[in-house]
Amino acid sequence: MQSSPSDMADCMTSRVWFGRTWNRCSKSDLSRSALITSYITPKQKGAVRSTKVFMVIHVSASKQRRNNPTVAFGGLIFSAMATSLVGCESSPDFEGSDRNAELEIELSSRGDTQVAVTFTNDSDRELGLLGRYVPGKGNSLPMFEITRDGLPVAYEGPIVRFRAPDEEDYVWLGAGESMTAVGSIEDYDLTASGFYTIRYAVAPTQLLFDHEPTMETVTSQELTLELAGRGSQPRVRPRAICSSTRLNTFAQALDDGVDYANNAIGYLDQFAGPRYVRWFGTWNSSRAVQTVEGFEEVWADLFYQTVTPDCDTTSTSCTVDDAYAWVYASDSSTVYLCESFWALPRLGEYSRADTMIHEVSHFDNTANTSDWAYGQAACETLAQSDPVRAVTNADSFAFFAVNALGEF
Ligand SMILES: [Zn+2]
User: Rounded to an integer, what distance in angstroms lies between the CA atom of residue 174 and that of residue 7?
Assistant: First the structure.
């Protein structure tokens, strides 16, 4: 695609918005800029002048947590620090919640690479734990933090997009009850021999039903195991070919994803309005740059079609909670599409298009997002309580991208 001088100027000027010092437009900018100009309507451009108004975010003292529990159980910690709730007009009301989750998590070895995670409800009420983050349900998700001889160990397994969880997806623990689940750490890089220190560690938005907004991590104590290295074991899967019908549907999803990514970049380059705050939390220039650069990488993968589909709908990762799709973060060539993906609508929230945004954002060489929260409600909570995680959350990227045109 040719880029006209005016496209170039548009690209250059847009990059000044966050004070970035770009001397030239990237290759992707040159191709994209022409598309962006067709996406930003005069009405949208006019909104630039009023965006600063929306930067005023109120902090409601009345919405601060009533308590400040840091509950430690020996070496087992669930720390829920008091966090000022940064609200916006659409923020959910947490006034009705006085839940101070008290969850004890204990990790123990079951031999080799098997670990047992025991959840104990030390509160006086029922606690809901999202089943997909309870080990051993056939799923593999990054739910452990592991180091080897002090160095971080990478998770190399599937990263999956699910629908928003509902109550039936939670495992319910009554007051005082315990539950032990056994899982594996084989999806982590265990190639080298050494002392591996492991802890169960997830965000509250990942595990807990109706959780308190907090930036903390729900963790177990540390468990150290001496493991013999497994050598290099590339995670190669035979490619499952798609039907021509599905290939066409996939191509449409890529095209639609390009349009959404264009719109997202156009907004992020020029606005700091409520759409940003809704999905990414308090506006902050470095985080805003992080989001726009992430979208630029997502856009490039979709536009240049460097990502291709795998149509094996029977993989284990497709069997949990009607998963839509999954990827390996380290392999940006492939997105694995589950049966539920093909039943999604073409556009909007939970569509084939926003699933492509979600999946492509996971790759190490794009936005390198995680799945800190699934579903719109949880993502809005995450934006308010933990904007640092929100700008690295795949569903937040997806929902920001498809957020109704015209909402600024
Ligand atoms: Zn995901």
Answer: 60
